[in-house]
Amino acid sequence: MKKIITTSKAPAPIGPYSQAILNGNTLYTSGQIAINPTSGELVTDDIKKEAEQVMQNLKAILDEVEMTFENVIKTTIFLSDMNNFSKVNEVYGSYFNEDTAPARETVAVAALPKFVNVEISVIAVK
């Protein structure tokens, strides 16, 4: 059964979508960008800080359903510039154990919502 997941500790959706959907034991997050949920401001002045905010937003959603990054089985990373890959990967990698890291794809795109540099979504299972 589909359950809408919402937390004030992650940015509110900016369109007709949910922060996440829990279906059974599987969580599907919407792509998160670097919006600070407290201030509503974008964090785009430094790619590492931007990636950190994205990961913190994902963490808040995982926390809402009592999951951690250990529960993540798949991630998708969208980058507006593949030259940012290594810096984003460094931040991203700090959230996962390399031995149990999820499957992942990283793709470069022409543009992202609000013209951010990175967007990440995850699928997690309890």
Automatic annotation (TrEMBL):
- Source domain of life is Bacteria
Spans traversing the lipid bilayer: none
Known CDD domains for this protein? YjgF_YER057c_UK114_family
Q: Which NCBIfam families match?
A: Rid family detoxifying hydrolase (TIGR00004)
Q: Which family does it belong to?
A: Belongs to the RutC family.
Its protein name is RidA family protein
To which species is this protein native?
A: Aquimarina litoralis
Taxonomic lineage is:
Bacteria, Pseudomonadati, Bacteroidota, Flavobacteriia, Flavobacteriales
